[in-house]
């Protein structure tokens, strides 16, 4: 039996879906498990030896590309397709690939494309973490599930690469390493102001004698540089200079990770690195750190929660959080 899992599109969702995939494997141990994933996130699945192969997906924004991807998937002769994505187009992809069994949540008007659809329950009244959202799909399909645990294994060779890379950049291993992740792909509404990251990082350098490392995607390079150039002591800036897997390798060396609500936050949590998550418009009950050690800093404001990518008001959910508050919380981890 061959199963293909359509992976979530975003870094954080990929990590949060790991327990669902692991539980599927436990229920169908003899099956080959394949992953169909966006090229941007596919490297995260290299941690799992039960994954037989990865099918990279790109450019699925029109019907022509969708048909081409379906033709490619059809060549593998999969028996089952599991959708961890919610979109109509992802269900259509597996339908066009003529996968006999197509499983997923019956939502977004795509139920007729599925052979086994699990009813979608709105979480507005009883918020539940996204980890459970994916795991409930597995149990809704009739499989047994166990208590979820986020894990992202890294090899000794990968961790050694991170040590050597930082050493070449002047990292002093005698100092605690604090990683700053000031970006958030969703948009500026989820980002704590850059000036406050700079002030916090300078406080940590002065009072805790830490080494600061700034990370992020290439699109966040300007944001990271604005922080680095405002600090009293120049940090190491690796923003836009790593693959996703290399980012995880660097994070694995941290003593503390300070971040907005973002994909790297969940990578850090899966690695069990202490983290402080700064939440603004989003709900940590749904997408907050799933495991300890972690702390969430959030302000109660009347306009919360919201789904704005850019705040149309005064961004008070973020601006009411000061550097001193984050610094005080950091002392519980350093």
Give the secondary structure arrangement, pairings included.
Layout: E1 2-6, H1 11-16, H2 18-27, E2 32-38, E3 51-57, H3 63-74, E4 80-83, H4 88-96, E5 101-106, E6 116-119, H5 130-140, H6 156-168, E7 177-181, H7 194-208, E8 211-214, H8 221-228, E9 236-237, H9 244-251, E10 256-260, H10 263-270, E11 275-279, H11 284-287, E12 294-298, H12 316-319, H13 323-330
Parallel strand pairs: 1-2, 1-4, 2-3, 4-5, 5-6, 7-8, 7-10, 8-9, 10-11, 11-12
Helix pairs in contact: 2-5, 3-4, 7-8, 7-13
Describe it.
With 334 residues, the chain is α/β, with parallel strands linked by helices. The protein has two domains: 2-140, Glycogen Phosphorylase B (Rossmann fold, 3-Layer(aba) Sandwich), CATH 3.40.50; 161-330, Glycogen Phosphorylase B (Rossmann fold, 3-Layer(aba) Sandwich). The protein contains 13 helices and twelve strands. The strands form two sheets. A six-stranded parallel sheet has the order 3-2-1-4-5-6. The protein has a six-stranded parallel sheet with strand order 9-8-7-10-11-12, with helices on both faces. Helix 3 packs across helix 4 and helix 7 packs across helix 13 (323-330). The longest helix has 15 residues, at 194-208. It is globular and about 60 Å long. The protein starts with a strand and ends with a helix. The mean pLDDT is 95.
């Amino acid at each position: 039996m061959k199963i293909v899992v359509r992976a979530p599109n975003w870094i954080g969702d990929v990590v949060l879906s790991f327990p669902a995939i692991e539980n599927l494997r436990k229920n169908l141990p003899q099956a080959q498990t394949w992953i169909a994933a966006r090229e941007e996130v596919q490297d995260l699945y290299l941690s799992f030896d039960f994954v037989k192969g990865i099918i990279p997906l790109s450019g699925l924004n029109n019907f022509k590309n969708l048909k081409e991807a379906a033709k490619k998937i059809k060549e593998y002769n999969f028996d089952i397709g599991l959708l961890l994505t919610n979109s109509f187009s992802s269900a259509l992809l597996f339908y066009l690939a003529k996968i006999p069994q197509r499983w997923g949540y019956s939502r977004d008007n795509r139920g007729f494309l599925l052979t086994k659809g699990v009813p979608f329950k709105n979480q507005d009244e009883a918020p539940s973490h996204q980890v459970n959202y994916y795991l409930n799909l597995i149990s809704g399909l009739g499989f047994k599930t166990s208590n979820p645990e986020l894990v992202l294994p890294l090899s000794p060779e990968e961790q050694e690469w991170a040590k050597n890379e930082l050493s070449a950049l002047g990292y002093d291993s005698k100092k605690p390493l604090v990683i700053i992740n000031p970006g958030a792909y969703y948009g500026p509404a989820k980002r704590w102001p850059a000036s406050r990251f700079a002030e916090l990082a300078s406080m940590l350098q002065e009072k805790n004698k830490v080494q600061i490392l700034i990370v992020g995607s290439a699109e966040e390079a300007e944001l990271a540089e604005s922080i680095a150039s405002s600090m009293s002591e120049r940090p190491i800036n690796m923003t836009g200079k790593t693959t996703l897997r290399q980012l995880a390798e660097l994070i694995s060396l941290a003593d503390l990770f300070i971040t907005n609500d973002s994909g790297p936050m969940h990578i850090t949590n899966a690695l069990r690195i202490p983290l402080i998550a700064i939440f603004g418009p989003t709900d940590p009950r749904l997408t907050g750190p799933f495991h300890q050690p972690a702390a969430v800093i959030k302000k109660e404001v009347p306009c919360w929660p919201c789904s704005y990518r850019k705040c149309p008001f005064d961004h008070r959910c973020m601006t009411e959080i000061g550097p001193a508050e984050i610094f005080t919380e950091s002392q519980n981890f350093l």
